[in-house]
Amino acid sequence: MTVASSWIDGALVKTGGAQHTVINPATGEAVAEFALAQPGDVDRAVASARAALPGWKRATPAERSAVLAKLAKLADDATSELVAEEVSQTGKPVRLATEFDVPGSVDNIDFFAGAARHLEGKASAEYSADHTSSIRREAVGVVATITPWNYPLQMAVWKVIPALAAGCSVVIKPAEITPLTTLTLARLAADAGLPDGVLNVVTGSGADVGAALAGHADVDMVTFTGSTPVGRRVMLAAAQHGHRTQLELGGKAPFVVFDDADLDAAIQGAVAGALINTGQDCTAATRAIVAQGLYDDFVAGVAEVMSKIVLGDPADPDTDLGPLISAVHRAKVAGMVERAPGEGGRVVTGGVAPEGPGSFYRPTLIADVAETSEVWRDEIFGPVLTVRAFTDDDDAIRQANDTKYGLAASAWTRDVYRAQRASREIHAGCVWINDHIPIISEMPHGGFGASGFGKDMSQYSLEEYLSIKHVMSDITGVVDKDWHRTIFTKR
Ligand code: NAD
């Protein structure tokens, strides 16, 4: 059993909080045991990040890039270790961890190794005849980061790596139920040459360690990925000190199938989009909005594909769907599905938890749901797709936008005009056309509305961790500057 701990100032350290066991949700067995951090450990980690900041901030872009490029290589070499940790602590299928989580993280690190050397500024020029103006982009400073349990490695990478590329130092608090890959990332970063203290990991609970980090006076920025209610609490804590925040929150993605769509492609896309990571994905397809003429065939097709999904040991490459993260979370998902018929929903397939160990739940399709129903409006975060019909294109767009969230959406159509209209009118940070889920390091990820603000991934994410400074230099050398007349006339 791994003995994990917190990572502060370049080393694993003993923390004095309560004993905590990381559980494999597929088996209920213990994976790792360690002492949680306490708020005092947050102070140590922040002090370490503060002390390390000047050196890292002043490192040249090429020096920072070299460390990140080495980290990408080491993470790639450590693929099997990272996959094993991710699978055992989250229960995600090994195919997903091997083909998505780890290579996606490696590619993201690699992208920012390059982006670190592309800090562009606007032209330096004489916007006033007597001065040269130039722009400096400077690291924001010490970044506090709080991440969720659904994609522990990717969420850590998306926050930590652009911050490091920008010259910031970081204290990250992963979800205490999934800390392993974040700790491994810190160790690999040290092996890659990242100076001590530039990246620190505190493995504590949200209520004390997370709150202490979000509200810490000596950080400069707080970035958060997680649920909308907790994100707002984090923002409030950071607001006490006026700290910059960036929030990636919940989602309830619409999946709009117009009447000219390729029905087979939409059916497959809906199942893949709804079931990825057992539906514990903020961009997962959750609300299918389907043209009346295709509705019955879509429902039947999705139910058929879902019925063939293989649940089982996440370490088995033949397994399609792993368990939910915990028994508590499964009870929450099951409760929402059980209440759906009371609100008019028809459970077409699924809605059952298989016998045996592990918090497994069958892929579930609920048709005919009411627009006001809980399963249509609230995040379920499980392998559950809900479906409603629409009457015309305006109704489809209206239903797609009838949500407080705005993270991701997709539109399925072979009509280029409809596709363009949908991409313009759907209010979400990402709109896919004839696909749902793919992401890429060069392009931004981030939401609108209750899904938060700011971007992960891409050059836009680097901007989150940089402050823009205007430098204005007098180029005349004269004592009596022309504009002084405005202030005084006699000397
Ligand atoms: P969560 O909000 O419960 O927890 C997220 C993190 O916040 C954890 O590390 C937790 O310990 C910490 N935390 C809890 N209370 C805190 C407090 N008072 N102060 C500071 N930190 C605190 O979310 P979760 O259940 O871990 O993750 C699932 C949620 O994350 C879903 O809502 C999902 O949509 C969202 N998510 C969003 C994105 C995105 O990019 N928008 C990506 C992944 C997950």
UniProtKB/TrEMBL annotation:
Keywords assigned by UniProt, alphabetized: Oxidoreductase
SUPFAM superfamilies: ALDH-like
Catalytic machinery residues: E248
Alphabetical list of InterPro entries matching this protein: Ald_DH/histidinol_DH, Ald_DH_C, Ald_DH_CS_CYS, Ald_DH_CS_GLU, Ald_DH_N, Aldehyde_DH_dom
Domain Aldehyde dehydrogenase: from-to ranges: 18-471
Pfam families according to UniProt: Aldedh
UniProt keyword Oxidoreductase present: yes
A GO molecular-function annotation: oxidoreductase activity, acting on the aldehyde or oxo group of donors, NAD or NADP as acceptor
Record has Oxidoreductase as a keyword: yes
Coiled coil: none
Top-level taxon of origin: Bacteria
NCBIfam families: PRK13473.1
Family in the record: Belongs to the aldehyde dehydrogenase family.
The name this protein goes by in its record: Aldehyde dehydrogenase [Segniliparus rotundus DSM]
Species of the source: Mycolicibacterium parafortuitum (Mycobacterium parafortuitum)
